[in-house]
């Protein structure tokens, strides 16, 4: 089908509205305005509803309301700003905040999942059976799901909702990108080929063989194709350059595992500022990330994703200098308290991923009997659990 000739256009919903969720909503809404041939202009953004007080110092303070708590969705829709999670950034007026995830996702053919991974389970069960069967997803979530096995969020979303889901990850500090400061990202998107004649699927390549279980429903022919080009048009901005790849495992795991390493570098930085030490620890962290991807996702993981793409080394680097996981772990050492105490005190409701991912990955490695092979991940876990001291981080990681 020739692009631009489609009768119907894709409706896009962002599931999540935190620091990164709101930033991605801004990016996507700028692009839906510029591509009316592909997308509905309005972008629904599901917001976990909460009451927010607007202080007297705020430009949005209304003396008639005073400091009475107001619904976050109402504030966003009235002022086009997520005053709690992305303050001082204007959102395009076509971002529509919606407190109901089912209502936000209704009739959407593109679902962008962007919320702290610890909250995903409930949202997923609310969406089940309430989305169009031919929808496609992109997971911006940096984390993994662990029960008996380890599952990428893209896989988990795909299995739970019966759709194909790709992954977006990169060296992306939300507050910088929200100000349109230049950066890059990586999107892994390679759905199975759809056989339009009998609606069956032929698996070309995918993150893991399990994706083969998903019977992909084709989009009706009057819609623009749900292909790489459509997704590039949805996310690429002059300040947010997208590279499309096929390695869903590498992109997803790069984003998840770097958070554990960033906590470790934060612990180190709390005591020792030497760049040489940080560089060596970052290298050791990357070695462990690559080994993990090869050992557990080796069917499709490509090492180049972690060495050459934004979702790999670049994300690790920026996270170990400017990320929240790094900063909170560093402050925890400096102030002699736990990472969770710092998180609760300084992040104003934003959520760390590194501490929970360290615990989840440890559960998985222990169950497999290979915890000892991943000394960096184990050291971070043991320090978070209070079993080891952050002072011993380097010796724990380099012990023979
Ligand atoms: N912030 C950043 O710079 C970047 C974050 N990411 C990733 O994006 C994902 C989302 O992160 P952020 O948007 O930054 O979130 P955030 O750290 O700002 O978390 C706050 C969000 O969690 C929601 N929330 C709080 N309690 C909840 C509950 N019980 N149920 C459901 N939602 C609840 C809040 O409504 C808010 O939307 C994470 O996986 C993160 O690793 C990726 C790149 C950059
Ligand atoms: O993913 C990020 C940078 O790419 C943000 O990391 P933090 O969650 O540690 O802030």
UniProtKB/TrEMBL annotation:
Residues 11-190 form the Glycerol-3-phosphate dehydrogenase NAD-dependent N-terminal domain. It catalyses: sn-glycerol 3-phosphate + NAD(+) = dihydroxyacetone phosphate + NADH + H(+). Substrate binds at residues 142, 324-325. Signal peptide: none annotated. GO terms for molecular function: glycerol-3-phosphate dehydrogenase (NAD+) activity; NAD binding; protein homodimerization activity. NAD(+) binds at residues 16-21, 119, 174, 324, 351, 353. It holds the Pfam family NAD_Gly3P_dh_C. GO terms for cellular component: cytosol; nucleus. Gene3D superfamilies: N-(1-d-carboxylethyl)-l-norvaline Dehydrogenase, domain 2 (1.10.1040.10), NAD(P)-binding Rossmann-like Domain (3.40.50.720). GO terms for biological process: carbohydrate metabolic process; glycerol-3-phosphate catabolic process. Transmembrane segments: none annotated. This is Glycerol-3-phosphate dehydrogenase [NAD(+)]. It comes from Pseudomassariella vexata.
